[in-house]
Prior knowledge:
This protein has 6 helices and 9 strands, in the order ααββααββββααβββ. By secondary structure, the protein is of the alpha+beta class. The chain has one domain (6-207): Histidine kinase-like ATPase, C-terminal domain (Heat Shock Protein 90), CATH 3.30.565. The longest helix is centred in the C-terminal third of the chain and has 21 residues, at 162-182. The structure holds adenosine-5'-diphosphate and magnesium ion (MG). Residues 27, 30-31, 91, 96 line the site of magnesium ion.
Amino acid sequence: MKQLPAATVRLLSSSQIITSVVSVVKELIENSLDAGATSIDVKLENYGFDKIEVRDNGEGIKADDAPVMAMKYYTSKISSHEDLENLTTYGFRGEALGSICCVAEVLITTRTAADNFSTQYVLDGSGHIISQKPSHLGQGTTVTALRLFKNLPVRKQFYSTAKKCKEEIKKIQDLLINYGILKPDVRIVFVHNKVSIIVLSTGFFWYMI
Ligand code: ADP
Ligand code: MG
């Protein structure tokens, strides 16, 4: 019997949390809602396998927190198990961003109210910052996940039929409509391959196609 390498353990545990394009969108939307966003844009390319991008106008991530934002079990939402009694956020495990980094290439661009400009961070597979540069976005956070599951060929095969892909888009649409109903004051826009699919705001939604 042999012990698995740390990178393999990380990949296996991440693929339990991030099992599909829908699960990435769900985690990122919940982070945006936790950050107090009133506007969220979800953009996918090639059913999310080439690119998933979630942009919000929430509170942003402080430069001091950036080095640990995608490290597993780092969270700004609770500090001990006692806080679990009065949870007011969707997230609290500090696992989502780290897990997404394991199965995709992740860029995070963020700016808080106190920052003069936004910063784009490029992360590696274990959630460490590889590089950073100033960028031009307003307050809030944009998470971009590229080439999802590139290191898990079997999973990519599973989603290779057009029917499965369409079902995934439908699931994302249903998920966003549910958040739209839960949070009628939040504007949510969903775009796939540059075509708007739904726009939700103030309790109404419009199907664009
Ligand atoms: P959790 O949501 O369980 O805390 P995540 O891995 O999803 O864990 O996120 C880690 C941390 O990164 C969060 O606790 C939060 O501080 C920060 N974060 C992630 N996404 C956003 C966002 N869209 N806006 C502001 N902060 C964010
Ligand atoms: Mg989260």
